[in-house]
């Protein structure tokens, strides 16, 4: 059990038989009435974000999340196969479970699997990945307005806005949190 007064960003808790991670929180001490904690929580089972308010000092369950290193092996239809790097056990996740992550996954890529008491909640990507540009418009000389961008499609199918100097075949660093271009690799 953990007190809501001890909330930190990234803490995993169990509320109403669901597993949440704390995205944001605020301690509120109104002039009249009891203090409370306003929080924004992300459900690790379905990805939904909810806002919850707790009384100050209220205790809730702490969820111990396990992270293990795994390798992404291959896709077969809507199923994606991973292998545990220590035990070599293989398991599959569906495209529905990996909706956002599929924008960045390549075969033989190392990621971390997030699980709670044996239940796989999803995967944890590195903060940036290297992806090759497979399709983009050619740069036009003289089209150099400051901050100008163009659309580029990378090898996983993700479309990102990139600077005008990026060409097909370039390898880019893409931020996996926002799905945005960071730099050339």
TrEMBL record:
This is Elongation factor P. Keywords: Cytoplasm, Elongation factor, Protein biosynthesis. It comes from Paenibacillus xylanivorans. Its main location: cytoplasm. Gene3D superfamilies: 2.30.30.30, Nucleic acid-binding proteins (2.40.50.140). Residues 129-184 form the Elongation factor P C-terminal domain. Residues 67-121 form the Translation elongation factor P/YeiP central domain. PROSITE patterns: EFP (PS01275). It is found in: Cytoplasm. One of its GO terms (cellular component) is cytosol. The lineage of its organism: Bacteria, Bacillati, Bacillota, Bacilli, Bacillales.
